[in-house]
Amino acid sequence: MGLFRRRKQARVPSHDRAADRGDLTHLENFIRSRRGVEAFIEPRTTVTETTVILIADDGEWTRRRIDGPDGARRFAYRMGIPVYDVRLMGYPQRMRDYNERRKRRPER
Q1: Do residues 81 and 31 touch, judged by C-beta distance below 8 A?
Q2: How many other CB atoms are there within 10 angstroms of residue 55's CB atom?
Q3: How far apart (Å, rounded) are the C-alpha atoms in residues 60 and 104?
């Protein structure tokens, strides 16, 4: 009867550190100093914990660890910014455009 039962997979511990107050402070400062910031939740991987990437209206972005998807949603709600799941929405074009502009900038 139990031929096709799935085994519960054990959660593999990450080799990455958890989010800390410094991560949240950085994210808060980014939001306060830029316009049109949106949050995108990036899933946990075998290498890193859940992260949130904040993307401003000009495409500038920053990424930090966050305490899981629910923690990212609570953070975005508290900060009054929209939040999306990157697996569903993908990354916005303005982020790719910003990265391209930075690549083309002459080195100093």
Answers
A1: yes
A2: 23
A3: 15
